[in-house]
Design goal:
- This protein has helices spanning about 1-20, 50-55, 135-165, and strands spanning about 35-40, 60-65, 75-90, 95-110, 115-130.
- It has a single domain (about 35-165), classed as Lipoprotein like domain (Double Stranded RNA Binding Domain, 2-Layer Sandwich).
- The chain is built from 3 helices and 5 strands; from the N terminus they run αβαββββα.
- The chain is an alpha/beta fold and about 180 residues long.
- It has a 5-stranded mixed beta sheet, with helices on one face.
């Protein structure tokens, strides 16, 4: 009985040493050049609560939401618009819809309280294709909701990567601009 247990422990230790040696590490929260971030979100934003939750996961960042806190923030993320679209992408010979294109767009910019742009007005646009069958309308509705949820998660990751790419509050430069 002791031998299999020891073999398992030895195997686990070897696996951990191998993974650690190759540079493998669990994904860590992004590091930002600012300590506090004020979020200015549009009224009724569907992405807003998820963005707040994702940014609060970073232990070194204070997320501010009250308008009175805007001036005390190191940086201000202005979400200018958020748009969700569903467009007919294909029809069959009888003129019935066979395919939709789902789109999610977000425009934002990152500035300092003094108005200096750290990230200029930027748009992230994502799209997914979804087939449609009248006989499976309910299932396709659920699939559409899952695709929108997937696009929101992808968009949140893209926003966080762009915020983490800001290297200084003074220059407003990102690695891509150098």
């Amino acid at each position: 009985m002791q031998l299999p247990r020891r073999l398992c422990l030895l195997g686990a230790a070897a696996a951990a040493a191998t993974l650690g040696g190759c540079g493998f590490a669990l994904r860590q929260p992004p590091q930002f050049a600012f300590r506090s971030l004020y979020l200015q979100l549009p009224e009724g934003s569907s992405l807003g609560p998820q963005l707040v939750r994702a940014l609060r996961f970073s232990p070194s960042l204070r997320v501010l939401l009250l308008p009175s806190e805007r001036a005390s923030a190191d940086a201000i993320l202005e979400v200018r618009s958020e748009q969700r679209e569903k467009i007919v992408a294909g029809l069959n010979a009888a003129g019935q819809v066979r395919e939709f294109q789902l789109r999610l767009r977000l425009r934002f910019r990152l500035i300092t309280p003094q108005g200096r742009e750290l990230i200029p007005d930027t748009e992230i646009a994502l799209q997914r294709e979804i087939g449609f069958a009248e006989s499976a309308a309910l299932a396709k509705e659920e699939e559409e909701a899952l695709l929108y949820r997937d696009m929101r998660a992808d968009m949140l990751q893209q926003i966080q990567r762009r915020l983490a790419a800001v290297t200084s509050l003074q220059s407003g430069s990102t690695p891509l601009e150098r």
